[in-house]
Design a protein that fits this description.
By secondary structure, this protein is of the alpha+beta class. The chain has a single domain (about 25-175), classed as 2-Layer Sandwich (Muramoyl-pentapeptide Carboxypeptidase, domain 2), CATH 3.30.1380.10. It contains six helices and seven strands; from the N terminus they run ββααβαββααββα. The strands form two sheets. Strands 3, 4, 5, 6 and 7 form a five-stranded antiparallel beta sheet that branches. A two-stranded antiparallel sheet has the order 1-2. Strand 4 (about 95-100) and strand 5 form a beta hairpin. The radius of gyration is 17 Å and the shape is globular.
């Protein structure tokens, strides 16, 4: 199922409630899907559908394809441990998501156990995706990628062969 999310905050009590109704991904959400590598699009569409239809969560895509330059900027600001060219995002083979279901909001700061109890990581693994909550060097529970299917070193080498060494010329989602 696809959902429309509305957040209502009861100011006097300090509670936040999520009201969830079925509608679908918004334009920005679809733009993340459209910019993915053609080799990855269907797998991520299937994953999102399985999370929504099978587990009852509404998926909010927060990131997808990133240029080498954008990745390097995130690295320089300390928001990631991957330099430009060293993330599956750089090849359009990764997405970051949040998930909402009946008042539960899974996001970057959610504990690993909350993600695991949702069933989302296991579903991803069953579909051949890697889950960032299992990374040893950086807890990234919102991250899902095709690292089981594609070698990052090979992708990087191919990108440089196709586009040269200038990061601004590289179109990683076309590799």
């Amino acid at each position: 199922m696809n959902y429309k999310r509305a957040i209502i905050t009861i100011a006097t009590l300090g509670f936040t409630y999520f009201i969830v109704t079925r509608v679908g991904l918004n334009a920005q959400q679809w733009s993340y899907i459209r910019r993915l590598n053609p080799k990855a699009k269907q797998k991520f569409k299937d994953f999102i559908k399985a999370v929504e239809d099978g587990l009852g969560y509404s998926v909010i895509i927060t990131s997808g394809y990133r240029t080498f330059e954008k990745q390097q900027s995130l690295y320089d600001s300390g928001k990631t441990t991957a330099r430009g060219g060293r993330s599956y995002h750089n090849y359009g083979m990764a997405i970051d998501i949040n998930a909402v279901k009946l008042g539960t909001w899974l996001r970057i700061g959610s504990p690993k156990i909350a993600w695991e109890e949702s069933g989302i990581p296991q579903l991803a693994k069953n579909m051949g995706l890697r889950w960032g909550g299992d990374f040893s060097n950086f807890y990234d529970p919102v991250h899902f990628d095709l690292g089981n299917d594609y070698n990052l070193n090979d992708l990087e080498q191919t990108a440089y062969q196709m586009y040269g060494q200038n990061p601004s010329d590289i179109k990683g989602n076309k590799v």
